[in-house]
Amino acid sequence: EADIYQTPRYLVIGTGKKITLECSQTMGHDKMYWYQQDPGMELHLIHYSYGVNSTEKGDLSSESTVSRIRTEHFPLTLESARPSHTSQYLCASSEYPRDGSPLHFGNGTRLTVT
Amino acid sequence: AQRVTQPEKLLSVFKGAPVELKCNYSYSGSPELFWYVQYSRQRLQLLLRHISRESIKGFTADLNKGETSFHLKKPFAQEEDSAMYYCALRGTSYGKLTFGQGTILTVHP
Q: Nearest 10 degrees: CA dihedral of A66, A25, A99, A90?
């Protein structure tokens, strides 16, 4: 079934560890996005990609990095996790940049850094 | 710059009452507006988009360019409408959405 998948669903990790949040979609979408959903439930764009080998920083500054080596895969990496990184991370994809094309979201990864 | 404002963080109504979730935006061009909903323990999902001029689950939203608003309305709220609602704007051709702060709607029996 065409969908967007995020793993892990929950992650608790200690300060200083390197982590990678996985995001894969089977819809063939070129556009992919990472949003951070903070405890107040606001959503902030932290990274996006127009296609393979394309990555851009979003509206909210983030210490994380992303890569887009394959169309279906858009992982997010934190080289050294800190408690301030504790948040929910949502991955999304879309087919077209405009004309009402919606974003499809994954279930999210809830990250807790102790 | 594009900005979306949802002035109400929390909104409570009783079942059967009308409900309106407010959304105002700031964008100098021609925006695309969306409403997304997140039910408890479910992923964020599209509710409706202004370009379709559709009614979904009894909800409608009209884009008012003069007032730069895209309020979400339902004449008779149901308990299953309780959720977090986000208004979102797409202004550029790059596809990214700017979200409002969200409104938690609670419909009491």
A: -50
Q: To 5 degrees, how large is the angle CA B90–CA B93–CA B95?
A: 55
Per-residue confidence at B47, pLDDT binned at 50, 70, 90? Answer: very high
Mean pLDDT per block of 10 residues along chain A (114 residues) reads 92 96 94 88 90 90 93 96 95 79 92 96
CA distance A5 to chain B (A): 11
The reply to whether residue A41 touches residue B45, judged by beta carbons under 8 angstroms, is no
Closest Cβ–Cβ partner in B34, B46, B95 for A31: B95
Q: Do B95 and A102 touch (CB under 8 A)?
A: no
